[in-house]
Amino acid sequence: MTGIDVLRDDVSLDAPTLVEGLPGVGLVGKLAADHLAETFEMVHYANVHCEGLPPVTTYEDGDRELVTPVRLYADPERNLLALRSDVPVSPGAALEFASCLESWYDDGEVTPIYLSGIGRGRAEEESPGLYGVGTGAGSDRLAEVGIDSPDESGLVSGPTGALLNHAVRTGRTAVGLIVESTPQFPDPEAAAHLVEDGIGPLLGFAVPVDDLIDHAEEIRQAKRRLARQMQEADETSSQARPLGMYQ
């Protein structure tokens, strides 16, 4: 079976916003989506069985129940979905994964927010840069909430790049948020900036980020193994990068 297996028929959503959290540079997307799901106590809404995903299963601390590595969580009160992933999506499967996921979007009129880090070092006290890109009405929405446009040319690669590419090809509304993040390690501070100044304004409500900031070092330690896996398979990682002067 491929596609999206909805587990909660009792959850009602009306044209929801989906926040994508695939692993990538600084793990900013994963950290942001996980934070939303945990902060708002979102329910496990669906399993993702798209072709190309690794044939593995995962389990969580204190819970015997096995789950798929890629899952959707829902908050009907806020009309919100979060895509959580414990594994990277391989480059060869990225377009197929994007097509599988977005074919389900069409049934529920989902507006996606895609997340990516761009590898940049910064001083400890320096706030990471954040900017937005979009297709369809997504660009207008970014302008409405005051999220900056890019200040240089660039591209988004990996599975998040494939999802954005699919949105361009199909003419659907989508938003992409790109935040400067440390490429070598998980970057909770960049994820907090992404949530507070990017995702929150787009959703129309504030999202507390104190836990991400207060437990930054603990989060880094917990996520280092996944971050190393992403570095070993650089082309698998969702990331934004500048194109440079000559394109």
UniProtKB/TrEMBL annotation:
Give the Gene3D superfamilies listed for this entry.
PAC-like subunit (3.40.50.10900)
Signal sequence extent: none
**Does the record bear DNA repair in its keywords?**
no
Q: Name one Pfam family in it.
A: PAC2
Q: Which domain of life is it from?
A: Archaea
- What does the UniProt keyword field contain? Proteasome
Is Cell cycle included in the keywords of this UniProt record? no
Q: Name one GO cellular component term.
A: proteasome complex
What's the protein name?
A: Proteasome assembly chaperone family protein
Species this chain originates from: Haloplanus litoreus
